[in-house]
Amino acid sequence: MQNNLVEPVLSDNAKYITESRYAIKGEDGKATETVKDIFWRVAINIAQNMKTKLRFFMK
Fold first, then answer.
1. Does position 49 have pLDDT exceeding 90, yes or no?
2. Confidence band for 2, pLDDT divided at 50, 70 and 90
3. Which of 12-41 are b and which e, b meaning 16 or more Cβ less than 10 Å from the residue's Cβ?
4. DSSP 1-55
5. 56 band by pLDDT with thresholds 50, 70 and 90
6. Residue pair 8/18 in contact by the 8 Å Cβ criterion
């Protein structure tokens, strides 16, 4: 992950919801990634999906 990215500015409630719903969790059930990590992971997956779709439609 990129370390030089700005930490997202979210309310405490938004951070709680993001971490509780979308974070990858360890065996203990606690989040193993930060909100910034979650956003980065989601962005990478969206970009990879778009790349795959573009390759399909450009044939």
1. no
2. low
3. eeeeeebbeeebeeeeeeebebbbebbbbe
4. --TTSPPP---HHHHHHHHHHHS-B-TTS-B-S-HHHHHHHHHHHHHHHHHHHHH
5. low
6. no
Q: Half-sphere exposure of residue 30, counting CA atoms within 13 Å on the CB side? A: 1
- Chain centroid to CA 9: 15
Task: Report if pTM > 0.85.
Answer: no
- Exposed/middle/buried for residue 8 (C-beta within 10 Å: 0-12, 13-18, 19+): middle
